[in-house]
Design goal:
Alpha-D-Glucose-1,6-Bisphosphate, Chain A, domain 3; 14 helices; TATA-Binding Protein; isomerase; eight-stranded mixed β-sheet; 462 residues
Length: 462
């Protein structure tokens, strides 16, 4: 399948992301979207990313657009730098998917491109290559500015007394995480650095990783372990037992810590947030462009609204000028991993609680998620169409559950059963895989629902 826009950004097989195709999409982006006359280019640690970034840079310069080569860095650090400069950005990353795939994420001077922008980019494909040679500058101080943002907001003693493991793997933020946490006073233990790209999906943490976290916590006496996905716009956090804290739990805790009143989050996120006292919860389709669109609508409705967004994967978007314990924190309208790592830890420490105890204080709803890989998009769509249009087929597929209480088709198929359990089925927008989300009143039931229906999906579609 040719590269295409998915849930967030352009994705495809590395073999199909040729220099010619990358150049075509770069030219289309520069022609269709406002760039501010300059574009920042960064990349992750996939083996193919430097080559693709070189093609992006060459195409942009040939179009007469000045380029800042930011290097290998987290996506939110790149976005912060480009937005601060009033410039566009292109990040070369496939996020959490395997290294045989890669992609491009596009940023305007105001933040991530919208779905309308993606359509405009597609419509501008096929332009002839330019013949100019615009300026090329090396990015300087970008990582430091990103780290300093959180040091200034939370203070040098915010995490004093905490012993934090950093699972480095092949995260683009592996060095930045250590620096940022140490700057806030934490004792940092580096873990699991890898020279081979590891596709970490913060919504589908495999049992082996959970076992590894438990072992590390016990061996090193850790209070928490933190990490991110490949391009570091999604957090991964465990408590002192190695148990993963879901992203849709980190999100509302972070929102509370910052004093947010309006939350925008996908329909797949934990419904516990509805009972946490926020002014308004706005549900969206899955993907940061939809969350951003909802946030922008809320800001248009009330420019002073303390609005934030987050996804079930933990990526957090700050839409207002917040106040940290030590200083102000400016808006950053792109998914970030550091903020939803730092803010819950600071909140727990300030309350004299372990992270697990802070999480346990939330309303008692639990989510789980995972995916079946290797399912062709066409197969997934046909199955989903059957499930959404045929109640008899749907009842047969969910034969082990109570009767349906409601069906939500906002994004995929989300069924709430009598008694309150929820199963949500949705093909991935970025890869040939099918995702299953579940929600229940206890963790074990949510995890069992995901395991049951992933097995059923695998038998049916695999």
């Amino acid at each position: 399948m040719a590269p295409k826009f998915g849930t967030s950004g352009l994705r495809g097989l590395v073999t199909e992301l040729t220099d010619a195709l990358v150049g075509d999409y770069t030219r289309a982006f520069l022609a269709a979207c406002d760039t501010g006359g300059q574009v920042f280019v960064g990349w992750d640690l996939r083996p193919s990313s430097p080559r693709i970034a070189t093609a992006v840079i060459a195409a942009a310069r040939a179009e007469g657009i000045d380029v800042v080569r930011a290097g290998m860095l987290p996506t939110p650090a790149l976005a912060l730098a480009s937005m601060s400069a009033g410039a566009a950005a292109i990040m070369v990353t496939g996020s959490h998917i395997p290294a045989d795939r890669n992609g491009l994420k596009f940023y305007l001077p105001g933040g991530e491109v919208s779905k309308d922008d993606e359509q405009a980019i597609n419509a501008a494909l096929g332009r002839p290559a330019g013949a100019r040679s615009a300026a090329l500058a090396e990015g300087a101080g970008i990582a430091e500015a990103y780290v300093a943002r959180y040091g200034a907001a939370f203070g040098a003693e915010a995490l004093t007394g905490l012993r934090i493991g950093v699972y480095e793997h092949s995260s683009a933020a592996r060095d930045i995480m250590r620096d940022a946490l140490a700057r806030l006073g934490a004792e940092v233990v580096a873990l699991g650095r890898s020279d081979v790209f590891i596709p970490v999906d913060t919504e589908a943490v495999d049992p082996a990783t959970g076992d590894l976290f438990q072992t590390w916590c016990e061996a090193h006496g850790l209070d928490v372990i933190v990490s991110t996905d490949g391009d570091a716009d999604r957090p991964m956090v465990s408590d002192a037992t190695g148990r993963i804290v879901p992203g849709d739990v980190l999100g509302p805790i972070t929102a509370q810590a910052l004093g947010a009143g309006v939350l925008c989050t996908p329909v797949s996120s934990n419904s516990a947030v509805d009972a946490m006292g926020f002014d308004r919860i706005r549900r969206t389709r899955i993907g940061s462009p939809f969350v951003i669109a909802a946030m922008e609508a809320e800001r248009a409705r009330d420019p002073a609204a303390p609005v934030v967004g987050y996804e079930a994967n933990g990526g957090f978007l700050l839409g207002f000028a917040a106040q940290g314990p030590a200083g102000p924190l400016a808006p950053l309208m792109t998914r970030d991993s550091l903020l939803p790592i730092i803010a819950p830890l600071v909140r727990a420490r300030a309350a004299g609680l372990a992270l697990a105890d802070l999480v346990a204080s939330m309303p008692g709803r639990f989510t789980a998620s995972n995916r079946v890989e290797g399912i062709a998009t066409e197969t997934s769509r046909a199955f989903l169409e059957e499930m959404t249009s045929d109640p008899v087929a749907r009842a047969a597929f969910f034969e082990d559950e109570p009767a349906e209480a409601s069906v939500d088709l906002t994004d995929g198929l989300r069924v709430t059963f009598q008694g309150g359990d929820v199963v949500h089925l949705r093909p991935s927008g970025n890869a040939p895989e099918f995702r299953c989300y579940a929600e229940a009143d206890d963790r074990e039931t949510a995890e069992a629902l995901v395991a049951r229906y992933l097995a059923r999906l695998s038998d049916r579609l695999g």
